[in-house]
Amino acid sequence: MNSALAVALAAAVAWSARRAGALTGRGAVAATVVGGVALSAGVPWGAFLIAWFIASSALSRLGRAAKARRTDGIVDKGGTRDAWQVLANGGVFTVCAAVGLGAVWLSPHVAATPETLRELAALAGAAALTAAGADTAATEVGTLMGGTPWSLRTRQRASPGMSGAVSLTGTAALVVAALLFAALAVALQLVPTARWGIVAWAGVAGAVADSLLGAWMQGRRWCPTCAAETEQYRHRCGTATQRAGGLDWITNDVVNVTCTIVGAAVALRLG
Length: 271
Ligand SMILES: [Zn+2]
What we know:
It contains 10 helices and 5 strands. The protein is mostly helical. It has one domain (3-270). The protein has a 3-stranded antiparallel sheet, with no helix packed on it. Helix 3 runs parallel beside helix 7 and helix 7 packs across helix 10 (252-270). The longest helix has 32 residues, at 114-145. It is globular, with a radius of gyration of 19 Å. The site of zinc ion has 6 residues, from loops. Zinc ion binds next to loops.
């Protein structure tokens, strides 16, 4: 698609998402960049991105009030995505779209035909967003309907919404979502039918990596006033929280971008 038209269309979609409360102002700017590159790369790229965004926003809104009650005081960011969240979820996909877009120029440098390069970029991009979507589904459905989850790290009961907390319902949602997002990538002709399974498995692998990294490596914080574990730097009670384990720089956004990198890498390995 013509790039000027692509950016205009992406800006229109991002603006309506901002009006609907799905994106912050800067989140809408980041989404315009991500969407502009995707639509420039071709209609299948743009269509898959928009469908993915609608589906994951819908998952975030699913039972929002009930989830907010269950995760109050634990989760750092709410349902409105900021620029970092947009890039954490969509950055790898955007790089893949850019590779697809520039396949003709890149091809002499990597000893692959432009067609091969485009196919691999589409496979990796589809897997990156499938992994992010599967992780979102696991978190949102698990938080809403998963009962009391287990912590992968301590193997004890954990609070709903904590990173690395898993439930059977959330895990089932993860697998179903990976299958569905991969089917969407096929239906929108981003990847051929024969590669549906690869995209789905890569999506599962990325989302599982997300849970493992969230459980063991992500920075954990502690509110001394409430004697409660949290991901917030300033707890809902107003107290500045203390480090309680994990690595401080491994935030939820770092975990999410890793999820999409693992998804893309596994797809390329299998493809
Ligand atoms: Zn507190």
